[in-house]
């Protein structure tokens, strides 16, 4: 059917739905939502299927050509060694309770990635200025407060000036503006992918995104936002990495308080949509000074891969410096531990 004729019919149905007085508001909204979806679909171009053999040939070509490898290395050697890196079209969630180091971990990762690939950092938690201080802190090893309260001596100021050369070379773009419309956010991502060739989009953090669709139903709103982030990753062929807050249930339960998938805050859709779900966990924060092997947990950060749609589960150990600016693989105790389903049930 002609799309214009189809759309005119849908408009008439919309008018009828709005003018029908015997229907309650909930039913009307549901009808309008369905009609708007039908309207969008009427302008979609014809979609054709492809035989799987075509994709197999493409896979073989990629396997034979090193130049066609699309894996994005994070620069965190333990992560790259075990998981390869980040992949285009992938939606990755990194969750953790406050003070676990989510933002600093993202900063460390982005510093490495942006040296070679275009990155868009969409910061909702920190202003662009405050986020920049974290990047400088990671590059120089100086505490963020030293910048904010001007406690740097002359030698440290020179080190900061030298770090600007590294900052200038980064292919990193920062946005710290909130948008109430996910369509606008998608348009921003699309523009950066087309104009600058952005390969990785960072969202810090997911629960601070909002939309006009479900104002009074937060769980539905987060589900919608999570699905849209997944769609952005697939449609633009970029990797979307979103930080996520965890619920307070982590703090209230006993044991070592390791996070679980059910701790993802406000929506189970995050767990369902994500290709990978990581948790950052610091046993030292909960007063656990030694691990099961009797080793010290001082400044230890555990990156727990709780969901991996395309591979095995894993734990990766890092050490942070005393000022919490740099994540370094803990080579002495670092390892990749696979878990069977019974072990995961214990978690």
Features:
2 domains; 13 helices; Rossmann fold; nine-stranded mixed sheet; 9 strands
Q: What this model shows, in words?
A:
- This protein is α/β, with parallel strands linked by helices.
- The chain has 2 domains: 45 residues; 277 residues, P-loop containing nucleotide triphosphate hydrolases (Rossmann fold), CATH 3.40.50.
- The chain is built from 13 helices and 9 strands.
- A 9-stranded mixed beta sheet has the order 3-2-4-5-1-6-7-8-9.
- α5 crosses α6.
- About 4% of the residues have low confidence.
Mean pLDDT level: 79
How far apart are the first and last residues' alpha carbons, in Å?
54 Å
Task: Please compute the radius of gyration using only Cα atoms.
Answer: 23 Å
Main sheet attributes: strand count, strand direction, barrel closure: 9 strands, mixed
Low-confidence stretches: 332-344
Count of DSSP H/I helices: 13
Task: Assign the CATH topology of the largest domain.
Answer: Rossmann fold
Number of strands: 9
Strand content: 5-15%
| CATH class (first level) name of the largest domain | Alpha Beta
Strand order of the largest sheet: 3-2-4-5-1-6-7-8-9
Structurally, the number of domains stands at: 2
The name of the CATH superfamily of the largest domain reads P-loop containing nucleotide triphosphate hydrolases
The helix/strand series, from N terminus to C terminus, equals: HHHHEHEHHHEHEHEHHEEEEH
The coarse silhouette is globular
CATH architectural group of the largest domain: 3-Layer(aba) Sandwich
Structural class per helix/strand content?
A: alpha/beta
Q: Please estimate the helix content.
A: 40-55%
């Amino acid at each position: 059917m002609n799309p214009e004729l189809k759309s005119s019919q849908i408009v008439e149905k919309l008018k009828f739905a709005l003018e029908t007085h015997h229907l309650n508001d909930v039913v009307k909204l549901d009808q309008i939502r369905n009609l708007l979806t039908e309207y969008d679909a009427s302008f979609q171009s014809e979609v054709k299927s492809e035989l799987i053999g075509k994709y197999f040939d493409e896979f073989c070509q990629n396997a034979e050509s090193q130049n066609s490898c699309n894996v994005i290395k994070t620069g965190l050697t333990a992560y790259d060694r075990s998981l390869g890196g980040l992949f285009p079209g992938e939606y990755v969630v990194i969750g953790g309770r406050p003070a676990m180091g989510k933002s600093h971990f993202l900063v460390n990762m982005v510093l490495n990635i942006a040296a070679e690939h275009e990155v868009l950092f969409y910061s909702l938690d920190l202003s662009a200025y405050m986020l920049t201080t974290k990047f400088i802190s990671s590059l120089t090893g100086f505490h963020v407060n030293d910048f904010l309260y001007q406690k740097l001596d002359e030698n440290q100021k020179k080190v900061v000036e030298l770090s600007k050369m590294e900052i200038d070379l980064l292919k990193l773009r920062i946005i710290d503006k909130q948008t109430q419309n996910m369509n606008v956010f998608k348009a921003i991502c699309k523009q950066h992918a087309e104009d600058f060739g952005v390969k990785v989009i960072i969202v810090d953090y997911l629960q601070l995104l909002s939309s006009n669709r479900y104002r009074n139903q937060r769980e539905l709103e987060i589900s919608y936002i999570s699905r849209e982030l997944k769609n952005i990753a697939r449609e633009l062929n970029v990797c979307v990495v979103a930080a996520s807050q965890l619920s307070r249930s982590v703090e209230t339960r006993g044991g070592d308080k390791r996070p679980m998938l059910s701790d993802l805050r406000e929506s189970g859709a995050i767990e369902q949509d994500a290709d990978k779900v990581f948790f950052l966990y610091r046993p030292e924060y909960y007063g656990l000074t030694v691990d099961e092997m009797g080793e010290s947990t001082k400044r230890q950060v555990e990156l727990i891969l709780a969901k991996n749609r395309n591979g095995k589960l894993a734990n990766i150990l890092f050490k942070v410096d005393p000022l919490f600016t740099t994540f370094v693989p803990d080579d002495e105790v670092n390892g990749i531990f696979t878990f069977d389903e019974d072990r995961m049930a214990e978690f």
